[in-house]
Amino acid sequence: MDQFWQFAGNFWWLVFPLAGALAGAGKGIERALQRRHERRLEVMRTKAALAATTATRPVATIAEPKPITRPAPLPTQLEKLFATHDDVTARWLEYELDVAKLIAFPAMSDGRQPLTAAFLRAKKVADRLRPASADAKVTPEQVSEYRTAVTDYEVTFEIAERDARRLRDSQFDPAERKRLATARQLLTVAVDDAATAAERQSAYKRARRELDGLIAVSDEAADILEKKVALGLSAGGAADGAAQDGAAPADDERGPAEAEPRS
């Protein structure tokens, strides 16, 4: 016991750095638990939204009679479900194929995010259960199963979209966020008709380098972006050629006395 107090008396100053280290570790654990808690709450809200959407309607009582209506024909039901299915897919592709949106809301293409992963799973189910056409031979049970899948697809997309717009680039560290901001500015130059061909090409290549290792750009998104850059280059080249053509006849417009002798 005396040795302990002797040690404490000689090294009492170690209390301060150890206390700071323990406090920092405690705060880190607290932040991790907070993030985990928030994700659990978001998943619970997702499940609650799905349950509320797919819940059965209350049965009409004698005091409140409910008119009996025949369900719409299966082809009509399928056409409406196809429209909803296609609308959600089109909204998702706006993020998947637009590199600028991909930079602004990277969580929408990050399958590691729980809500994005749930949406992608719902998409696979809806795509798998979708009939070939509205005139396909399907049973009412198959249509009902497809309707549930489309509802899940729509709800999970909306929740994942809200979460991605809330997160933005907060999942990246300051250095990575700076690279994303630089890539966003470079892409603006790459598709700017007012920039020169050399500026557009250089901006496009630099933007791709900035995104390398941060965001996975699909081949389709890269092709669309390259076409936009190429279109700007073509427009710029045509304008430069027109300017040169317009300036070429300047020597011929001079009178014979003003023209320089040709060797």
Order of helices and strands: HHHHHHHHH
Which class best fits the helix and strand makeup? mainly alpha
Instruction: Summarize the amount of helix as a percent range.
Output: 55-70%
Strand content: under 5%
Uncertain runs are 247-263
Oligomer: single chain
State the distance separating the first and last CA atoms: 111 Å
What is the mean predicted local confidence, pLDDT?
A: 79
- The DSSP helix count reads 9
Can you count the beta strands? 0
Domain unit count: 2
Shape: flat
The biggest beta sheet reads: none
Describe this structure in words.
The protein has 2 domains: 25-51 and 74-171, no CATH class; 173-240. The protein has helices spanning 2-10, 15-54, 74-96, 99-104, 114-129, 140-167, 174-190, 197-211, 219-247. 70% of the residues lie in helices and 0% in strands. It contains 9 helices and no strands. It is an all-alpha fold. The model is unreliable at 247-263 (pLDDT under 50).
